[in-house]
# Entry
Amino acid sequence: MFDASATVRRSGHLAYDTVMDPALYDAWYDTPRGRWIGETEFALAARLLDARAGATLLDVGSGTGWFTRRFAATGLAVTGLDTNPKWLDYARTHRDASLAWIAGDAAALPFADASFDHAVSIAALCFVADEARAVAEIVRVTRCRFAIGWLNRTSLLYRQKGRCGGQGAYRGARWHTAGELRRLFTGLPVRNLTLRSAIYVPTGGDAARWLEARIPSWLPWGALVIASGDRA
# Structure
């Protein structure tokens, strides 16, 4: 969940997947605030997936591969998929036997049914034109569990960055309520659908970190809300 406010002030206009420099995006996760946000979101997604080392994982909308690499570091065999060739080129500079990079459309995944043990997507479907189709595709290619993260319309971050079409890296993104997300799974072969959230105060300061450690993830007010479940 990247926040490029400072970059926007320098460049004037920033589109999430076309103008933004992938190296700049990835480097944000090396800043103290970026690292805290990224690691907090990763920890929630990893806990919800509950994947064992050696399992296969598809990361849909992998971008520069920050989360993809983070999951691979836990012992998973991870494939990152994205539509943007510039971002994929950057991701491919990180070569590892446990990583693979593929160009593809989230709404038409180039894989057979149940191709992966698990699937994950972190704040990527917010920019996909047909979210419902992308969700159905992620469920289709998953054999066990999935975890899909969206930007949360009932969050403090939405009040700061999401209104009136969004600012900076959030321009054009869709923000959802918990009820809207649950409806995206209607009719799909999914069991045990659960929604959890993280990043309640996105400033990343000491107070934000103190609160994050004490607010339960089942409260639906975090900036990132993750829907997880089992393939039925």
Observations:
- The domain at 5-231 is CATH 3.40.50.150 (Rossmann fold).
- The two ends are 29 Å apart (CA to CA).
- The longest strand covers residues 142-152.
